[in-house]
Structure formats: structure tokens, C-alpha cells
């Protein structure tokens, strides 16, 4: 446990990457959109600016292994402890930012879009459920983005540039075949109908198995990764 806490402390020494930069990106985007909304009075303004912080957490998941894994192994931290500590940091960050966006969405709803009908944090459909469901959606989305980035970085550490190139080609081939088959059998409407029948929180719950799979695969890759 001491080694795991050491990994957590190792990550949180870089508070800029985990806390300050994503918060700065989020609120600077919000400030810009809020100013614009004042210039367009009495009109509902929908913006996807909040997605920037989700993208940043995805990038953070990619960078964390490249930046800290060799150092951690170099100071004799076990790979298992490194994985647990890193996953814990990603989970903590997901809970913190998920809670922050949830609270900002509540404030936005209560203030009628900050008095300008701005929809930056609060959106129809996404925020239609209970408070607990809305909070769960944000946290799960952050966890998925982090775990996906963590998986990509762990795979790259295990197999290197050659492995990443082969994986990219495989995804391109499989994706092309999948799109062809969906078009050939006109299955797009079945998929779109299924998505339309799900609530936002139901779709978020479907991501939980993928989060677990991403983390498990990351652990397996890191166990055999070279420094």
C-alpha cells in the first residue's frame, strides 16, 4: 500500500497536468462562450466546449505512462503497484472533474444559462435523469476516456512503434469492413434506432465493461513492457 501511495504522490507532484491545466482549459473555454452569449441575447446557445476537458483527460491517459513508467520502474516500484496507483489517480481525477461539471450544470440550469441562455454544461437528454444519474454519466465518461488513453499508452510501451503501426492498420481494415457490411445490409437504421431507444445514463452504463477491459488489458501490457 505504501508503494501504491508513492505512485499516487508521484503523479500528483505534477499538479499542472492533472488539475490546473484541465481546469484552465475548461473555464477559459467557458469564459469565451459566456462572453459570446452576452453578444447574442435572448437566444439559446449550445456549445460543445465542455468536451475539451474530456479530450484532455484522454490525452493525460496517453501521456502518463510515457512520462512516469520508466522513472517508476527505475526506482524499483513494482509494475502492479504502478498500475494500481496510476488507475487510482485516473479514477480520482474522473470523480473530481465529473463532480465539478455536474455542479456547474446545476448552476447553469438554476441560472437559466447564466442569464444568457447559454448551454455549456447542461444539455437536454444528457441531463434529463436524476442528479445521481447525471453525476454517474460524467464520471463514467471521464473514466472511459482515461482508461482508453491509458490502454493506448500501455500498448505502445509494450509493443513500440511497430506494434502501434500494425494495430492502426488492423483497426483501419476492420473498420472499413464493418462500414461496408453495415452499408451492404442496411443495418445503420437498426443501430440508430437502438441508440435512440436508450437514455443517456443507459448508454453510459454500457461503457463500464469497456472501462474494465481497458484497465485489465493495460495491466497485462505493462506487466511485460520494457523500460
TrEMBL record:
<feature type="transmembrane region" description="Helical">
    <location>
        <begin position="203"/>
        <end position="222"/>
    </location>
</feature>
<keyword id="KW-0812">Transmembrane</keyword>
<feature type="transmembrane region" description="Helical">
    <location>
        <begin position="52"/>
        <end position="75"/>
    </location>
</feature>
<keyword id="KW-1133">Transmembrane helix</keyword>
<protein>
    <submittedName>
        <fullName>Uncharacterized protein</fullName>
    </submittedName>
</protein>
<feature type="transmembrane region" description="Helical">
    <location>
        <begin position="163"/>
        <end position="183"/>
    </location>
</feature>
<feature type="transmembrane region" description="Helical">
    <location>
        <begin position="135"/>
        <end position="156"/>
    </location>
</feature>
<feature type="transmembrane region" description="Helical">
    <location>
        <begin position="20"/>
        <end position="40"/>
    </location>
</feature>
<keyword id="KW-0472">Membrane</keyword>
<feature type="transmembrane region" description="Helical">
    <location>
        <begin position="82"/>
        <end position="107"/>
    </location>
</feature>
Amino acid at each position: 500500500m505504501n508503494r501504491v501511495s508513492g505512485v499516487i504522490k508521484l503523479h500528483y507532484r505534477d499538479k499542472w497536468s492533472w488539475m490546473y491545466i484541465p481546469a484552465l482549459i475548461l473555464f477559459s473555454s467557458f469564459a469565451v462562450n459566456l462572453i459570446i452569449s452576452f453578444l447574442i441575447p435572448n437566444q439559446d446557445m449550445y456549445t460543445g466546449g465542455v468536451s475539451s476537458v474530456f479530450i484532455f483527460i484522454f490525452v493525460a491517459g496517453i501521456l502518463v505512462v510515457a512520462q512516469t513508467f520508466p522513472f517508476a520502474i527505475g526506482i524499483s516500484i513494482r509494475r502492479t503497484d504502478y498500475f494500481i496507483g496510476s488507475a487510482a489517480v485516473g479514477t480520482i481525477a474522473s470523480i473530481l472533474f465529473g463532480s465539478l461539471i455536474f455542479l456547474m450544470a446545476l448552476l447553469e440550469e438554476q441560472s437559466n444559462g447564466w442569464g444568457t441562455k447559454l448551454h455549456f454544461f447542461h444539455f437536454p437528454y444528457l441531463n434529463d435523469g436524476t442528479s445521481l444519474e447525471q453525476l454517474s454519466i460524467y464520471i463514467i465518461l471521464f473514466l472511459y476516456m482515461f482508461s482508453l488513453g491509458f490502454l493506448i499508452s500501455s500498448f505502445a510501451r509494450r509493443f513500440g512503434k511497430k506494434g502501434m503501426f500494425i494495430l492502426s492498420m488492423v483497426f483501419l481494415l476492420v473498420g472499413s469492413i464493418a462500414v461496408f457490411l453495415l452499408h451492404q445490409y442496411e443495418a445503420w437504421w437498426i443501430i440508430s434506432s437502438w441508440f435512440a431507444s436508450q437514455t443517456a445514463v443507459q448508454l453510459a452504463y454500457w461503457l463500464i465493461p469497456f472501462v474494465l477491459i481497458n484497465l485489465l488489458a493495460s495491466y497485462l501490457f505493462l506487466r511485460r513492457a520494457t523500460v
